[in-house]
Amino acid sequence: MENQVWEKTPFVRLLVGALIGIGTSIAPLVLLMFGLIQFNIMRLVGPENVTAVFGTVAGIAGLAVVILGPLGGVIADKTTVKMGRRRFWMVAGSIGGAASMMTLAYAPSIPILILGYILVQFFYGMVTLSCYSVVPEQVDPEKFGRISGAFGAAAPLFIMGGSIIMGIFATVPVQGKLTAIAIIQVVGGIVAALLIKDTRFEGKKSDGNKKAFGSGFKNFYPSVKKYPSYTWALLTKLFINVTNAGLSVFTLFYIARFHLSEADIFELNAYQSLSLILMIGAGLIGGFLSDKLRKQKIFVMVAALITGVCLIAFAFAPSITWCIIGNFAFNFGFGMYGAVDNALVNRILPSKESTGKDIAIMNTTTQVATALVNFAAPLCIAMGVKLMGDDGYTLFFLILAGFSILSALVVIPIPEVGHLDSERSETRKEIITE
User: Fold this and answer.
1) DSSP E strands, 159-298
2) Is the predicted pLDDT of residue 269 greater than 80, yes or no?
3) 147 and 283, same structural domain?
4) Do 18 and 131 contact (CB within 8 A), yes or no?
C-alpha cells in the first residue's frame, strides 16, 4: 500500500547490489544468443536443422515470456515473506534460473529444451525485475536518472565480461559453459539480496491472501484515464524497441548490399562491439544530466531522433564505413534513451504496491517488438525490392526510422519532472477512501 513505510538501503549499497543482480541476470540471456543455445540445439537436431528449429524455439519462448512476465510481476508484488518480496525473488529467481539452465543444458529433446529456455527467461527476469523495483520504492526521485544510467551500463559490462570469459574457455563444452554461467548468477543474486534491505510487504490486512493475490489481476493494466502517462511511456518504449529489434537483420543486410563473407561479418561485429562503451557513457551522462537539469523528456526525444537519423543513414549507406559510424551513433542514442527513459518510467509508475507488475508490463515491449519485427521484416524487405528495385533494405530501415520518430512524439503528452501531481493525488484519494 502507498502508506506502508519502505525501509531504505543506503544509496551506494543499493546501487552496487542492484547492479550485480541486474548484470548477472541479464547477461546469461544475452550470452545464450551468442551461440550457446544454438550449439545446444545442434546437439539434438544436427547442423542442417538448427536454423529452423532455433526460430521455432525462440518464437515459442518469446510468446510465453510476454504472458509470464506480467504474471511474474503480480506474483512478486503479492509475495509476503519476512525477508521482503524483492530480496526473496532475487534469491528464488536465481535458484530457479540455475535449475532451468541445467534443464536447458542437458535437455534430451527439443520440447524439454523449450521448457528450460522459457523458465530460464522467467526466473532470471524475476531477478532483474526485483532489482529494478527497489528503485521507485527506495530511491529519491531526484536520483532516478543517475541510477538508471548506471543500470544501463551494468548489462553491457557483464555481457562484455562474459563474452571474454567464453572466449578464453572456448574449448570447454557448451554444457560446461552453461553450468558456469548458472553458478556465477546464483552467487550474484545472493550477493544482491544480502546488500539490499527490504520491507516485508503486508498487503491489505482486511483481505485474505487469496483475495489479495486476485486483486493483482483486477484492473491488471493501469487505467488509461487515471494514469495516461503510463500508456504514453509504454508506447514510446515499444516504438524504440521496434527500431532496435530491426538491427537483428544486419547480417543479412551486409550480405545483400555489400556481399560480405561470414569471416568479414564476424570481424566487423568485433569492431562494432566497441560501440557498447559509447552506449554506457551516453547512459551515464544522460542520466546524470537529466537529474541535474530536472528534465527527462528532451533527452528521451533527442535520443529517439538520433536513432531515427542513423536508420535513415543505414537505408542509404553506400559503404561499410558509413554503417560503422551509424552503428556507433545509434548506440550512443539508444544508450541515452534507455537510461533517461527508465528514470521517466520510475517516475510515472501509478503505485508502489504494484511496482513489479507495472514494470513487467513495460518490459514485455521488448518481446512484443522483437516478434513484430521478425514477422514483418521479410514482407517489408520484399516490398522494398518490388517498389524501389534495390536490395529491399532501404524501405525497411526507413520504416524503422518512422518508429523512432513516433517514439519521440509520444513522449510529448507526458508531464515533465514535478508535474504529475494530479495523477498522484488521485491515487492517494482512492487509498484514503478504501
Assistant:
1) none
2) no
3) no
4) yes
